[in-house]
Amino acid sequence: MAHKCFISFKTEDRAYKTHIQEKLKIDMIDKSLDKAIESNEEDYIMRKIRTDYLSDTTVTIHLIGAYSAENRGLEEQKYIKRELQASLFNGEDNSRNGILGVVLPPAYDLIYKGSYSCSKCGSSHNHVAINDTTTVKEFNRNYYIPHENCSWSDEDRFCVLVKWDDFIIEPNKYIDAAFEKRNKPIAEKVKVYP
Questions:
Q1: Where are the domains of the chain?
Q2: Could you give the angle at the alpha carbon of 117 between the alpha carbons of 112 and 118, nearest 5°?
Q3: Which residues make Cβ contacts (< 8 Å) with residue 188, sequence separation at least 6?
Q4: In degrees rounded to 5, what are phi and psi of residue 95?
Q5: Segments of 31-186 assigned E as strands
Q6: pLDDT by residue (tens digit) across 130-189?
Q7: The domain made up of 3-189 is a member of CATH 1.25.40
Q8: Which residues contact 53 (CB under 8 A, 6 or more apart)?
Q9: Distance of alpha carbon 187 from alpha carbon 194, whole angstroms
Q10: Interatomic CA distance for residues 82 and 192, integer angstroms
Q11: Largest Cα–Cα distance of the chain, in whole Å?
């Protein structure tokens, strides 16, 4: 089944967005923004993005590269933050999108830190650094939804995360996984404005 997808990306990562659109065989209807909206008024731009591009989408593909961090400043991240907020919002005339985070190769070493031995449970866990130094709060808060356990399982996360190299082999698998999260119990714990 084709999903209507919106691709949220930083300008520096445009080549990856183009690769998705032109080279991958994905069963999707592309609702991405391909050219800048001619305006200097931020509210108008976001209204146009929500109305013309996001309102009927079901999955947002968030490209996570070297320029995606929250701590780069609100001014630099305002559009990505707003796109993810609109994607996460579940209300009248807007149903929540599934969120698929695709980690781009320049960010692999920033995010995938190996494993560690947990002092709480004694098990080994993978250290995946999804935080303000690697992506915006709208993604990281909904990937690591607060809970009592010392680690997160797939059921504890709303956002889906995949490396670029895995995504380009089976893109539909990961898009479907993000789409399915919309109807899972974890969707009730989503926070739109962290």
A1: 3-189
A2: 100
A3: none
A4: -95, 150
A5: 59-64, 98-103, 112-117, 124-128, 160-163
A6: 999 999 999 999 999 999 999 999 999 999 999 999 999 999 999 999 999 999 999 999
A7: no
A8: 6, 31, 32, 33
A9: 15
A10: 10
A11: 55
